[in-house]
């Protein structure tokens, strides 16, 4: 990773930590930031030292929306040819778990980035929202789809139609976020959980995430078949043999990710 | 800061004085807004470690200014737009807030006093749930806060019967921390506030945060919350200072960090 301008990256104990780094504009998401973010995630996805990724924002916000100036003058054809959401779509094909640590506002594109994460840990004071409607547009990077799959149609519409902010407690209540954490400890607690996952056998983690993602989109029958294939597949791994031997021999397993 | 309040910071104490003495400091939208802004200012100012809210003249606060109320008013919207944001700002504030109740605290003035963490009452102070006398319910979180202070049965009595409570009666109900003779008022309020301002500010904030959270949680969740709180407190310089002072048998000097 060279010359990262809008994000910062470090690897700590198997956790690839990505920090959005435009605090002076509340980490508003511009196109180069998304490109950097996706390149970084793709690199982490291939890095055997990384088991799980954490995304958070520097400063007071997670990400307060997209950079409006950047797109205000675009025509539909400009947008089609630019195909900016192709970068966003690649986030969905990342194989390793992505944990969002939402430290403040997650609005518009920032909320969509949060929803693209597999798990969300958040401060009790964080706020979520899709203000796009108030600009005469709508979410374009998955907001209407992802929020609806999580909350259901009625609840998702309630917020999407007004652009009003959803409190962290509401988000928690409706299952949009996993945990509410004291602001002072958000990153510490998120990293604790992430490091725990990073110690798990990587192939199992990978295929679990893949199967759970399918559960959201597949009919049950197809999902069950998909799960079973992944289950069988893990029996070709060294980690399965090690894990089961260690269990029978009453010792701790040493996983290799193979 | 504005014409409806006075705002002053001295020795780590921010004093917010409701300043409409000719109207007994009655609330207008502007006054609600200015109190909210002042509390926010004090919350973010690192030089402030305790906040006093008091009234200019002979009243603490007589409640809503009824001169601005006509039949077309939507009472619910007034609460959402004026009182709600003020109460939430006070609730969000992690520094200790003292209501220095210098005179009558009626209606929303009573609500303001019980939204604060401590109440000091001048011997001339009184408290009145005035709402019922105009056919309304106590608002600005009054019915939310009052039973936690005086208990459900007494709160119901006060809210429904609407009888005036003297400073001494308020003390008996644990509604106030202390009743102060008029001659010593300024000096004692200042001493109490400065005492709080010299304490471990972060720990005070965490005590407030956790005690409030406890009302809404089961034990299991609360214990997790408590672990967060103690972890945060354990990382403060004031904790280190407290331990060092104890070991060295000297008085701690807390910096609020």
From TrEMBL, chain A:
Keyword Transmembrane helix carried by entry: no
Source taxon at top rank: Bacteria
PROSITE patterns named among the record's database cross-references: ENOYL_COA_HYDRATASE
Pfam annotation, one family: ECH_1
Keywords, sorted A to Z: Lyase
InterPro entries, per the entry: ClpP/crotonase-like_dom_sf, Enoyl-CoA_hyd/isom_CS, Enoyl-CoA_hydra/iso, Enoyl-CoA_hydra_C
Cross-referenced PANTHER family: ENOYL-COA HYDRATASE, MITOCHONDRIAL, ENOYL-COA HYDRATASE-RELATED
Family assignment from sequence similarity: Belongs to the enoyl-CoA hydratase/isomerase family.
Name of this protein: Enoyl-CoA hydratase
Lineage: Bacteria, Bacillati, Bacillota, Bacilli, Bacillales
UniProtKB/TrEMBL annotation, chain B:
GO function term, MF aspect, one: isomerase activity
InterPro entries in alphabetical order: ClpP/crotonase-like_dom_sf (IPR029045), Enoyl-CoA_hyd/isom_CS (IPR018376), Enoyl-CoA_hydra/iso (IPR001753), Enoyl-CoA_hydra_C (IPR014748)
Record carries keyword Phosphoprotein: no
Keywords: Isomerase
Family to which this protein belongs: Belongs to the enoyl-CoA hydratase/isomerase family.
Name recorded for this polypeptide: 2-(1,2-epoxy-1,2-dihydrophenyl)acetyl-CoA isomerase
Organism annotation: Pontibacillus salipaludis
Lineage: Bacteria, Bacillati, Bacillota, Bacilli, Bacillales
């Amino acid at each position: 990773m060279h010359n990262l301008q809008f994000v910062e990256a470090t690897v700590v104990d198997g956790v690839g930590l990505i920090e959005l780094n435009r605090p002076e504009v509340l980490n508003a998401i511009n196109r180069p930031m998304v490109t950097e973010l996706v390149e970084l995630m793709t690199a982490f996805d291939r890095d055997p030292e990384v088991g799980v990724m954490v995304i958070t924002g520097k400063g007071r916000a997670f990400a307060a929306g997209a950079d409006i100036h950047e797109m205000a003058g675009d025509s539909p054809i400009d947008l089609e040819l630019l195909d900016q959401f192709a970068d966003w779509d690649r986030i969905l094909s990342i194989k390793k778990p992505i944990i969002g640590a939402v430290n403040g506002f997650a609005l518009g594109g920032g909320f969509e980035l949060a929803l693209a994460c597999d798990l969300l840990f958040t401060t009790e004071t964080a706020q979520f929202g899709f203000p796009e409607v108030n600009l005469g547009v709508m979410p374009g990077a998955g907001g209407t789809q992802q929020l609806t799959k999580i909350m259901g149609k009625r609840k998702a519409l309630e917020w999407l139609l007004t652009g009003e902010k959803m409190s962290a407690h509401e988000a928690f209540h409706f299952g949009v976020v996993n945990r509410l954490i004291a602001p002072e400890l958000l990153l510490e607690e998120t990293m604790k959980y992430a490091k725990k996952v990073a110690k798990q056998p990587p192939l199992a983690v990978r295929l679990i995430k893949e199967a759970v993602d399918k559960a959201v989109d597949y009919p049950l029958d197809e999902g069950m078949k998909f799960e079973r294939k992944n289950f069988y597949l893990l029996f070709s791994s060294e980690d399965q043999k090690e894990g089961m031997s260690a269990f029978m021999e009453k010792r701790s397993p040493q996983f290799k990710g193979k | 800061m504005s014409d409806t309040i006075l705002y002053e910071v001295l020795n780590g104490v921010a004093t917010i004085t409701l300043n409409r003495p000719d109207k007994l400091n009655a609330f207008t939208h502007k006054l609600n807004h200015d109190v909210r802004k002042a509390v926010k200012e004090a919350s973010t100012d690192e030089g402030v470690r305790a906040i006093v809210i008091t009234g200019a003249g002979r009243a603490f606060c007589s409640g809503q200014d009824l001169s601005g109320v006509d039949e077309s008013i939507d009472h619910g919207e007034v609460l959402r737009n004026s009182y709600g944001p003020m109460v939430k700002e006070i609730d969000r504030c992690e520094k200790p807030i003292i209501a220095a109740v210098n005179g009558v605290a009626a209606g929303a003035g009573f609500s303001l006093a019980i939204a604060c963490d401590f109440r000091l009452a001048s011997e001339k102070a009184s408290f009145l749930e005035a709402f019922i006398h105009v056919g309304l319910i106590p608002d600005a979180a009054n019915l939310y806060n009052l039973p936690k202070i005086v208990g459900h049965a007494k709160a119901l009595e006060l809210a429904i019967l609407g009888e005036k409570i003297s400073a001494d009666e308020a003390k008996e109900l644990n509604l106030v921390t202390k009743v102060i003779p008029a001659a010593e008022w300024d000096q004692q309020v200042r001493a109490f506030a400065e005492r709080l301002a010299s304490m471990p500010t972060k720990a005070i904030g965490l005590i407030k945060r956790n005690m409030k959270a406890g009302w809404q949680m089961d034990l299991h969740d609360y214990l997790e919350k408590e672990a967060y709180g103690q972890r945060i407190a354990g990382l403060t310089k004031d904790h280190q200072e407290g331990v060092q002072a104890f070991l060295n048998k000297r008085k701690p000097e807390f910096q609020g960090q």
